[in-house]
Specification:
By secondary structure, the chain is an alpha/beta fold. It has 15 helices and 19 strands. The strands form five sheets. The chain has a six-stranded mixed β-sheet with strand order 1-2-6-3-7-17, sandwiched between helices. A four-stranded mixed β-sheet has the order 16-9-8-18. Bound molecules: zinc ion (ZN).
């Protein structure tokens, strides 16, 4: 495996002095160099180090003229520190926090066509672990801040960039740690998280630009049925496995009521533009709050639409019995719920107990649900996103979305900062390779992402 350190002088040479207006090409070249540097540092929790990547970035920012006090490599442990830099503005408005993570999911050389920790350029793509998730996005933010600095742009507010550890796993979560230990360093009016949302390419065409404004809340419960048991040659009608199976059968038939929130309604209204005509009509009704039960039922057949409209709870694990020849004394199921933001876990549990309708099957929470309030759809921010999207790709629907899974935005939303997930990196909807083999991005998509990030951050801080 080759390990290449991108020489700093190459990047220094890419920053012309005096630097009033770098050409787009120079900017793209710098972006490629920074992406290469990030990809070629292994930042997996098991065998890598986010600290190494953070230290390299710190050197770049100090060399570019950032005050040493504004460039921080912080966190517990030796190998998994976070990178935080503050780009000072006039202070006319509260800062904006720009967020990505530095760590990546494990990748084995033997599984990949190319070395996952070498940036490989092939057929118009950049291959490497983290190109999609999310070193591509991190490189865009880094490159843009360095460009703004080189052009001596003074934003109307501080821009804080935090590139964190532990998003994909590991001993701790970097965002959680920063909130608990360095709150003032990342305190912001709102957050832009490049690890969510973003542009979609469908059959070679740019179709939508998603902005993640909410995420569902994770909450698991355990269902347990118990019984005195006995010899299997003398079965009885009461049986722990049968009780649990019957309870799960009732759960399988149950749906929580559809309660599309503001973000979901906006999503259906906008996404209708790209949907088939019959589906689009139902989507528009949900968007307008006029959907009847039949329209909701039709949309609910699509798992994504179903999950967007309601809280879901589904059986995910099962265990029971202790011997082939014994009546089961215990049967257990794990039920994983994804609650709409703001839903009370106790109320969801109460509903489940009603659905199970068997006092012999006990429900216990398996975790403490962490709330993640939906972020308000700020008109000013969405207008800015619209304008920047238009300047790079022409008119495209900018669509607010609610993530059905959970992201790092959870910690910040929970701490009171609205979070908007968006990235200028367009990805083909049938080429999502995050966490997978031969992860890649289109080089043109990366370059356009750089152009978008530059345009967006300038508009945002004018
Ligand atoms: Zn990610």
């Amino acid at each position: 495996m080759s390990k290449r350190v991108w020489p700093l002088f190459v990047v220094a040479a890419a920053l012309p002095l005096p630097a009033q207006q770098q050409s787009a090409t120079t900017f793209h070249q710098l972006g490629h160099a920074i992406l290469r540097e990030l990809i070629e540092v292994n930042t997996t929790a098991a065998s890598g180090s986010t600290t190494t990547a953070a230290e390299q970035l710190a050197t770049r920012f100090r060399d570019a003229g950032f005050a040493a006090a504004d460039v921080e490599v912080v966190g517990p442990g030796v190998k998994n520190r976070n990178f935080v830099v503050r780009y000072r503005g006039t202070g006319a408005h509260k800062p904006v926090l720009l967020l990505a993570h530095l760590d990546v999911v494990e990748a084995k050389r033997a599984d990949w066509t190319y070395d996952p920790f070498v940036l490989t350029e092939r057929d118009g793509y950049f291959y490497g672990r983290g190109t999609q998730d999310v070193k591509g996005g991190a490189a865009m933010l880094v490159t843009t801040l360095l460009r703004l600095k080189a052009e001596k742009v003074v934003p109307d507010r501080d821009l804080i960039l935090a590139l964190t550890a532990g998003e994909e796993g590991g001993p701790y979560n970097g965002v959680d740690w920063l909130i608990k230990n360095k709150r003032s360093a990342i305190d912001a009016e709102y957050v832009i998280n490049v690890d969510a949302g973003g542009g979609e390419i469908d059959k070679g065409k740019h179709t939508l630009f998603d902005v993640q404004a909410a995420e569902k809340v994770f909450h698991s419960v355990t269902l347990t049925a118990t019984n005195p048991g006995g010899h299997s040659s003398l079965p009885r009608k009461d049986n722990a496995i049968y009780s649990l199976a019957a309870a799960l059968g009732r759960l399988a038939k149950f749906d929580f009521p559809a309660k599309p929130n503001e973000v979901v309604k906006a999503y259906f209204s906008k996404a209708a533009a790209a949907a088939a005509p019959d589906v689009a009509a139902d989507m528009r009704k949900v968007g307008a709050g006029t959907a009847d039960a039949a329209a909701i039922a039709r949309l609910s057949k699509t798992p994504l639409y179903n999950s967007l409209m309601r809280t879901t709870c589904v059986a995910t694990m099962l265990e029971g019995g202790h011997a082939q020849n014994a009546l089961p004394q215990t049967a257990k199921a794990t039920v994983n719920c994804r609650m709409l933001p703001g839903e009370d876990p106790a109320a969801v549990e109460k509903t489940l107990i009603g659905v199970i309708a068997d006092t012999a099957v006990h429900l216990t929470p398996a975790d403490t649900a962490v709330q993640s309030p939906a972020s308000p759809l700020r008109a000013d921010l969405f207008a800015t996103i619209d304008a920047s999207v238009k300047s790079v790709w022409g008119p495209l629907p900018v669509v607010p979305i609610m993530e059905t899974g959970a992201t790092d935005g959870l910690y910040l939303r929970n701490a009171g900062a609205p979070v908007y997930g968006l990235t200028g990196l367009f990805i083909a909807i049938d080429d999502i390779r995050a966490h997978g083999k031969d992860e890649r991005i289109l080089i043109t998509a990366f370059d356009q992402g750089l152009d978008f990030t530059y345009d967006f951050l300038k508009r945002l801080t004018k």
